[in-house]
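The instructor's notes for this session suggest beginning with a concrete chain rather than abstract definitions. Hand out the sequence below and ask the class to guess, before any prediction is shown, which regions might be ordered.
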Amino acid sequence: MDASDLYDDAARERLVEEPPKRVDAPIRTPFERDRARVVHAASSRRLAAKTQVVGPQSDDFVRNRLTHSLEVAQVARDLSRALGSQPDIAETAALAHDLGHPPFGHNGERALAAISAECGGFEGNAQTLRLLTRLEAKTFDGDRSVGLNLTRATLDACTKYPWGIGEGPFPGKFGVYADDRPVFDWMRATQPGQRRCLEAQVMDLADDVAYSVHDVEDGVVAGRLDLTRLDRAAVAEATRAWYLPDVADETVAEVLDDLARIDIWPSTPYDGSRRHLAALKNLTSDVIGRFCGAVQQATFAAAPGPFVRFRADLVIPEQTALEIAVLKGIAAHYVMQAADRVALLGRQRELLAELVEALIDRGPDALDRPFADDWHAAADDAARLRVVIDQVASLTDASAVARHARLVDGAVASTP
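After discussion, reveal the predicted structure:
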């Protein structure tokens, strides 16, 4: 049986029914069409100029949001296929999972969250849903854009946090704004509640796996950390502060010992040679395989399947979750918390706050045409603030800096 046959008509349904494709067009499943729509979306292209951890302008080796998303998609597709679910759904969710991230990565997300309290907050995952169902226009329902008009199964797989602000188990994490609730309710009509579909769980795990392994790889190549000389106490503290509040130093030390027993874990400092670069890439591949293999085995052991939608859940062994968190803790300590990064992060947040204020003051004349139209249609100040947040979130790192220079620095320079 083809994996697509495990998904019913409700899973294939789109918010707006679409006419059949031309008879001479390539024959594709609905889920393959979803993938193509995300690949061709303008917001996907913008990811190439948005920060992953280190700004994309800082080095031509480090990952940006686009390369990260491509790597997440590869991990998600392979794991989904191994589980017997539809790989196009998990891959599309992975390709889309960061579309809602604003300039400057998670730092920009925190800045916009602080600014947008009066219009319902900001969260990158809720912004992704908004892009897919409204802002990234491909299909219209009368006078209203319904975004890419993805199938229910694909859209649900893109939803990491299927609840509104203040409704879920994780403070500050949510997947839908109040004015996007109608399409969210349509998407969740066949599975109310807060349970995530299996494909969303695969996407989320793939994100964590790629994040943990590749950020460490980038840190090694950038000379920010040496895997043969880790400050274990500092890594434990960063792991607690960022990911696992209750993890003990001893547990982190045990996890680091287990990772160091991987056959190709480095025994000498990285020297930038092709041999060391190849060894580092092979280590990355082995660790990803270690994580995904453990999850696949645990998932198969827990339920008979089929592993699609809401018929099963992904099982992540405790040891695997610990290893992922500790690797992320390494990157947090040596990269995100580095002194030069901390100063830069503060300036980035100031820039976005100043840019939002300038756009509110200038109004539609300073907005791109789609957002200017939204401004004119907005009913109150909160709705207009949401329009400005949408505009700023759509920008790349470079375009945010350029627009700030034009609207803020230029305005200051022209003041007598």
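Then share the key points. The mean pLDDT is 92. Residues 42 and 136 are 7 Å apart (CA to CA).
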